[in-house]
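Before the break, one more example. Copy the sequence into your notebook; we will annotate it together after we see the structure.
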Amino acid sequence: MTQGPLDVLETAAEWRHAGRSVALATVVATWGSSPRPVGSQMAVNDAGQFVGSVSGGCVEAAVMEEARSVIAEGRPTLVEYGVSNEMAWDVGLACGGCIRVFVERLE
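Here is what the structure looks like once it is written out:
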């Protein structure tokens, strides 16, 4: 589900207010061909719901997995997907670009 940045943050705040654990993923760098620009965000809650977009397709599924780990462990992480990364082919970012996504738990 793709929404504007304010919608993502508003939804994340609503989830937190309702007692859900939430992680926020933000595109912090891109190189070459990338599906979403720097600043794009996706929020994921502990029930597996998400809002927003950081890439598309399988990359988002991988970012959602990272978000669930961040929710559980509480430690932020910086992940990178690109053509030089073997995982890029696994998660579907074989378009010649690279993205870096910062994932943090909202408190």
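The radius of gyration is 13 Å. Residues 5-106 form one domain. Try to locate both features in your own notes.
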